[in-house]
Amino acid sequence: xxxxxxxxxxxxxxxxxxxxxxxxxxxxxxxxxxxxxxxxxxxxxxxxxxxxxxxxxxxxxxxxxxxxxxxxxxxxxxxxxxx
Length: 83
Prior knowledge:
Structural class: mainly alpha
């Protein structure tokens, strides 16, 4: 994962943290997000192997897409409330 993508993940998780939704994530997404925070330099494949139930690089990518979607939805809710 490139530095840009890693920093994008950090910015994407901000709405989840700000809205106190992190603990409401499904366990598989929460575990992956925590691993990324603790291992910012790890590749997707490495993260997949670190999970309690290891998954493929593709599976990790899919979970990050889900996290991104949740963050975008929360960001959009904030935008609508701010106007």
